[in-house]
What we know:
The protein is an all-alpha fold. The chain contains six helices and no strands. Helices cover 82% and strands 0% of the residues. Helix 1 (2-49) runs parallel beside helix 6 and helix 4 (96-120) crosses helix 5. The two termini are 34 Å apart. 6% of the residues are buried.
Amino acid sequence: xxxxxxxxxxxxxxxxxxxxxxxxxxxxxxxxxxxxxxxxxxxxxxxxxxxxxxxxxxxxxxxxxxxxxxxxxxxxxxxxxxxxxxxxxxxxxxxxxxxxxxxxxxxxxxxxxxxxxxxxxxxxxxxxxxxxxxxxxxxxxxxxxxxxxxxxxxxxxxxxxxxxxxx
Length: 167
């Protein structure tokens, strides 16, 4: 049961920031579109008051502005949020989560290795030594299953969400 809740928590933990990001991006784009619509309306009113000789030039300029703004919005959607454009800084910022994950995995593996050593060669005289299979079964608890399931669900859940966003 803990494993199921860990999977659910890991998956929800990876999707929650993505959902918030999607909502924020939706609001930002809606705001930008409303500003663009106001600019277009303003430009149309200006064009209506001008003489007929300059109308064609202004309409062409307005179309160029709209195309340039669309291109800027589309180009901005492809960049990673928070990227500074400095290669090594962006790479360092992008490596924080994987480095933390690997560090905690190494720490977890070391703790489990020490526990294995204590189970197979106990230092206290009243503890019976276990063979390798018994020690492994004693080490793999329900909490370990929950941790494992949460980590797997988080990473593969966020990967699936990222693929859906790119599609």
